[in-house]
Amino acid sequence: MHRQFAVIGLGYFGSTVARELRRHDHEVLGVDADEKRLNAVADLLNQAVIADPTDEHTLQELGLEQYDAVLIDLADSMEQSLICALLAKELGARELWVKATSDAHHKLLSRLGVDHIVHPEYDLGVRVAESLAYHAMVDFIHLGDHQFVVELEVSARLGDDCQQLDQLPIDDDISVIALRKGKTLDRQPSGSTRLAAGDHLVLIGELSVLRKLGAHL
User: Fold this and answer.
1) DSSP β-bridge partners for residue 64
2) Spatial distance between the Cα atoms of 100 and 145, rounded to a whole number of angstroms
3) Helix (H, G, I), strand (E, B) or coil at 213
4) For residue 94, what is the DSSP state?
5) Is-contact 31 25, C-beta < 8 A?
6) DSSP alpha helices (H): ranges in the chain?
7) pTM of the prediction?
8) By three-state DSSP, how is residue 137 classified?
9) What are the Cα distances from residue 123, in Å, to 100, 127, 154?
10) For residue 75, which phi and psi values (nearest 5 degrees)?
11) Residue 125: how many CB atoms within 10 A of its CB?
């Protein structure tokens, strides 16, 4: 289903989001005060507008309330980011995503009632740290309340015979969601399923318990 999005601020993060949305055949409006930055991605957008993102009249003319979601990437200026977010909320943006650059920025955006606050550098830093510290960890999603969905890769340390799934030290607090072998995804793997190096386990549970399991893989 084609959807419509407005991306205000076309820095590296904003332009990447806009590019990916267009790759999925969604309609994207791009807005930036910097003509050079806008021109760099204009050919990818359905509509490109050079405008001051803190000007209420300009934002009103864009009809932000018509878009399924609005993303704001004005990381160069916290003040501009906050003003733009406030105006977008007042103008009826249905779903508002804003890139934050600090804890203070995040807190202020939260006070404004922003729907989704994104910390790309922080989130990536956490992922890199987890991957460095726990080599088996491929990816994870934080669900809140200390619960995570984690994708772990089975290493060659299990040996040529490969252990079965039910032989792994899986705590009762961990649930196996799926097992991927190459291109095949098993959404309900049985305990007798044999594991091979390169298999990917998708699990849900507390991160501290999942880390202990990761050490065995």
Assistant:
1) none
2) 22
3) helix
4) S
5) no
6) 12-23, 35-41, 56-62, 78-90, 103-111, 120-133, 207-214
7) 0.68
8) strand
9) 11, 6, 24
10) -65, -20
11) 11
Query: What residues contact residue 70 under an 8 Å CB cut-off, 6+ apart?
Result: 5, 6, 7, 8, 64, 88, 93, 94, 95, 96, 97
Residue 136, CA distances (Å) to 57, 78, 103, 150, 186 in order = 51, 37, 30, 10, 19
65's tokens? 């309330």
pLDDT, tens digit, 9 for 90 and up, residues 50-107: 999 999 999 999 999 999 999 999 978 999 999 999 999 999 999 999 999 888 998 9
Rounded Cα distance between 180 and 201, Å, is 6
**Residue bearing tokens 């084609």:** 2
Measured between alpha carbons, how far is 119 from 117 in angstroms, rounded to an integer? 7
Determine the straight-line distance between the first and last CA of the chain, rounded to whole angstroms: 40
Distance set, CA 138 to CA 3, 10, 152, 176 (Å): 30, 29, 5, 15
Residue type, 10: L
